[in-house]
Specification:
Layout (H helix, E strand, L loop, with lengths): L5 H40 L15 H8 L13 H14 L9 H9 L3 H48 L5 H30 L8 H12 L7 H9 L4
Helix pairs in contact: 1-5, 1-6, 1-7, 1-8, 2-4, 5-6, 6-8
């Protein structure tokens, strides 16, 4: 690269693909965090249900579900299967704030007319959350064990070169700085995510305040975008 020493150029060529691999997996982690937050929000809809005595009603689940959905006079009442009921729950969750627990006619009538539907639904969501955590953990542990040690070694080499070579160019210094900043950022983000994974409980019947605490932890997990630093390392500081 024009304006850089052969030593820094060799270091950046080795470092750049390592950082790019993390950027690609970072997209997966971001998606997983969003999906996990959505599942935890769904848990809140049914929080505390396990320990409550639901007051069953004779009103059909069809009428209850229709009552919470958008009115459509042309729609005919049909029997609602488990999957349809769960789809309706999602629609309700997105559009309206409803009461939960034994005060909720929706939950009461799902329990009365579709025994096991809520349990089945929460079991499915719990399995999905487990897969999401595994996917994030697998990606982060791979980088923690394989990528970060290589990145740290290259960062140290770049720092040593710029500190001892009086002829280092401005481009050399900026690339070395980008390498150092990106390593520190990636290491911090990976450790934060691994700590989050270790602390989250996937029990759908967890107390609502605990679920809210997990959500707050996820929302505060601000993974830094290092693409601008990668751009400097890949193409140089003047591009």
């Amino acid at each position: 690269m024009i304006g850089t020493s052969k030593e820094i150029d060799a270091i950046r060529q080795q470092y750049e693909p390592l950082l790019k691999n993390w950027i690609e997996d970072q997209t997966i982690v971001d998606r997983c965090l969003t999906a996990l937050a959505s599942i935890l929000e769904t848990y809140i809809l049914f929080s505390g249900l396990k320990n409550e005595n639901v007051d069953l009603s004779s009103v059909s689940v069809d009428r209850i579900l229709e009552g919470y959905s958008v009115v459509n006079t042309e729609r005919q009442c049909e029997s609602i299967l488990y999957g349809q009921a769960m789809d309706m729950i999602y629609r309700i969750k997105r559009t309206k704030q409803i009461e939960r627990g034994n005060a909720s006619p929706l939950i009461a009538n799902l329990t009365a007319n579709l025994p096991g539907a809520i349990t089945l639904f929460l079991h499915h969501k719990s399995n999905s959350a487990t897969k999401i955590l595994h996917e994030m953990k697998q990606a982060c542990e791979k980088h923690a064990k394989q990528t970060l040690p290589k990145m740290e070694k290259l960062m140290s080499m770049a720092a040593l070169h710029t500190a001892t070579d009086s002829k280092c160019s401005d481009a050399d210094n900026k690339i070395a700085e980008a390498i150092q900043q990106s390593f520190v950022t990636v290491e911090k983000d990976i450790n934060t995510i691994l700590e989050l994974i270790a602390s989250v409980t996937l029990d759908p019947y967890e107390k609502e305040e605990n679920i809210h605490a997990y959500l707050q932890q996820i929302n505060s997990c601000n993974i830094q975008n290092v693409r601008s630093l990668w751009h400097i390392i890949k193409y140089g500081p003047t591009i």
